[in-house]
Amino acid sequence: MIEFRGVTKQYPDGTLAIEHVDIVIQPRTITVLVGSSGSGKTTLLRMINRMVDPTSGQVLVDGTDVATVDPVRLRRSIGYVMQNGGLLPHRRIVDNVATVPLLRGVAKSAARARSLELLDTVGLDRGLADKYPRQLSGGQQQRVGVARALAADPNILLMDEPFGAVDPIVRLELQTELRRLQSALDKTVVFVTHDIDEAFALADQMVILRTGGIVAQIGTPAEVLAHPADDFVASFIGADRGQRRLRLQPRDPASGRIVVVDSAGRPAGLIEDDHASIGDGASPDVKAS
Amino acid sequence: MNLFIDAFAWIFDPANWVAGAQSPLPIQDRLAEHLLYTFVAVLIAALIALPLGFYIGHTGKGRQFVISFTGGMRALPTLGVLFFLTMVLGYSMVSTTANFLGTMIALVLLAIPSILAGAYSGLESVDRQTIDSARASGMTELQILVKVEIPLSLPLIVGGLRSGVLQVIATVVIASYVGLGGLGRIIASGIGLNDYNRILGGAILITALALLVDGVFAVIQRLTATPGVGGPADTGRSAVRRQAQRQPATVGTPNQERE
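The joint structure predicted for all components is written out below.
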């Protein structure tokens, strides 16, 4: 469990990056920190592995205040994935993945063997092991970044806009993959993004931040959709523009399917099971296309 | 052209290479001295400039001060420094020691700016994200320096050394003004004897030596380019100079919010 208790970050020039934040992150869930630029979401994430120290308040991991843990040891026990993978360009893929085990003093051959297994885990061909990061596509580099973060078998995985630099199709693929990995490996994932759709796609719990590092709302995607805390959240998730307001069209006589459309009448998806009981209006489980 | 042919003839005249020939001959002794002075001066300069450059490049501290300071050092006339030092040092020690020490200090001062610029600009050229990611993975600051920053900036670091070595090789000539050896002795004695072959021959030897050493460094630079990182497009002395002259950009500390 990760807990933020009254966390504030003020820079020496007086700017408040984070203002009195309280968040509880349950183990083995995906929590998405979402907000626009300057909302402090990355700063919050980086407080967990002490890349940033709060000016006041505490960050606790499994009940231990991280401020009392040596940062290097702490970071080696927490996986970190960043945009573009953040790989070391002068090392081969297999050595990149083995970075943390090697730092921890694992024997080279054992670390290599583990790296190869991890390439399988993240769905990469072992043939890529001896290539350099530059020779891989953006999506592949991103997978290597995930494999590297998993190498030390951490309980916590921090992901800082990891899929920001890949094209939408690959991003979707990586999101699906992340959900699969998370449920298979039972990791606690904290994920930062500015893309609200990505947040909806991944989150068990979402934390919506507004400029100045203030928490606007915390809740499950369904809760956030159903009850936006305020106008800011409503506008941020697109509810005020009707993008999330879906309704059902009458059954198409030719195909017998029910089409879901948004408030502008643009088709947004199909109802999978015609016999499902449908309440008043759309439920958040309807998958937007 | 005749002048050059005569000069080359002088260089290749076996009589000038006979051991025990009258000073400033034989040539190989002067060549060896020249290289020795260069090596010692650059070694001392590197021992001072590399750690300092790594410190500045890694922490971003003191950058402004060092840029203006080394800029000033580049403008120092080495010959003036040499005479000044031998005079000052001459008060407190034997003149031969004073001359040697003065020459070495002057040459070290000459080599420091290039090596320093190569080291810190090399480290600054490393992608901030790569360093940030290495730190987030749990590398200590020393591990970041040794395993990430130095390997990735090696071509620029070697470029700084290359530039420093070249300047020193060309300038060791002045050692002959205070009675030390090196190829400068050949030129000086040529001037004394009005022997143009000897003057030009000495100059050609220095040029050839400089080109040869530069070539060696070019090869080293190519070899140090890490395999995973692009071609040698932006390495070499010109890149070091460009970076050294570049106005300081705001370099964010890794702890700052990236957004």
